[in-house]
Every structure is written in C-alpha cells, then in structure tokens.
Amino acid sequence: YTEAWDADKTSVHVMPDTPSILLAKANAANVSHKLYVEAWEEAKKKGYDMRADAIPIRSAKASRDIASDYKYKEAHEKQKGHYIGCRTAQEDPKLSWAARAMLLQNDRIYRKGYHDSKAQVHIPVDAMSVQAAKECQTLVSDIDYRQYFHQWTCLPDQNDVIHARKAYDLQSDNVYKSDLEWLRGIGWLTEGSVDVVKAKKAQELLNERLYRTRPDELKFTSITDTPDVVQAKINALQISDV
C-alpha cells in the first residue's frame, strides 16, 4: 500500500524560483550565524594596529582609574594620619576652612530676608524727603529754568517789521559781501601781499648768514706777547715729553 507512495516521494520536483523557496532561502540567510560573523572574521584575518598611546586606550585607562575604588580612596589613605596632633581647631586648616564656610553661610542666611525685602520698600508720595527731592529737581531742571517767549504773529506790512527786515539786510553777511561778487574768479598775484611781505621779513630775521659773521671772515692778528699766550707757551713746554 505504501510502496507506490514511497516511490512518488523521491520523484517530486519543485521549481527553485517559487516564492516559498525564495522565502526559505532568505530566512536561512538571516538566521545563519556564519553569514552574521563573516565580516568580523574577515576583519580579524586582516589584523589591527593599536598603539598604547592611542586615544581610545588612554580614554579607557582614564575611565578605569576614575572608576577604580583604589584610586578613589588613595588620596584619603595618604592623608589619614597627617592631621593627628593639632592642639586646637584653628591650627587645622580644614577645620578652619569649614568654620569660615559655616560663617559665610550663616551670614548669607542672616541677610537673606533683608535682600528679599530691600526692593519692596513703599514710600508715601507726600513724604518730606520726596517733596524736597521734587523741589530740588524743579530748581535744577533746565526745562523750568528756561521760559521760552511766545511766538508772536505780526503782519508783514507793519512799520516795525519792515524796519526789522531792513536791519537784518544790513547785518546780513550775504548783503555785506554782495559788492565783492564781481571780484570772484579774477586772477591775483601774491607778490606784495601782506602774508608774502610778512614771510620775507621773518626769513630775514631768521637768516643766520645776515645775523652773524663767521669767525674765519674776520681779519684778526693774535699778539704773541700777551700774558695768556705766554702762559700757554710755558704750559706747553712743561707738559712736553721732549
């Protein structure tokens, strides 16, 4: 009965590109440990070069030292017996520092209420000091000191307005210099002007050649029998090596 079934089981042929076969192959590749570690095995075969002073190694060493309980307690173990024998707490630097820190902390707590409430002061607006400050501000204020005159509006044909316009025209710089407009653009030589004459006079005053005479230009004959010349000759003979 089963002979024919056993014979048919060995003759079954399945196409290799069916979805179920492809899915089975993909699942086999995903769960394959050999394919999972293939890249790691290839990297291990190439080898590596890790120096002792590399940044990852130094970082790992620093992390190990920080996490080490021995390194953590090393400073404490070295200082264990160093402060034994202090006669007073003032001689112990750490105790003095702790006492100073405690005093500062107490002072900060003592003044905390004051610092919290110092900006919450309410002064009455009619207090004597406030009124005096307002009066002083009024006295020194430039706005209250200067009282600007009213801008009067005058008719243009009034006699005083006409007179004022004439006075303004007489005092105006444009009207004052209007008679010199015809001179603008005309050429002029500086020779003989006040500035040029003044510069020449100053040059003559500062000229050393005209101010003093050189000694080599003076006709001078030295007298050989004057006391200073005779004394100079005697001194020269006294200090002469010959």
UniProtKB/TrEMBL annotation:
The keyword Repeat applies. It comes from the Eukaryota. SMART domains: NEBU (SM00227). Keywords: Actin-binding, Repeat. InterPro entries: NEBU/NEBL, Nebulin-like, Nebulin_repeat. GO terms for molecular function: actin filament binding. One of its GO terms (biological process) is cardiac muscle thin filament assembly. One of its GO terms (cellular component) is Z disc. This is NEBU protein. The lineage of its organism: Eukaryota, Metazoa, Chordata, Craniata, Vertebrata.
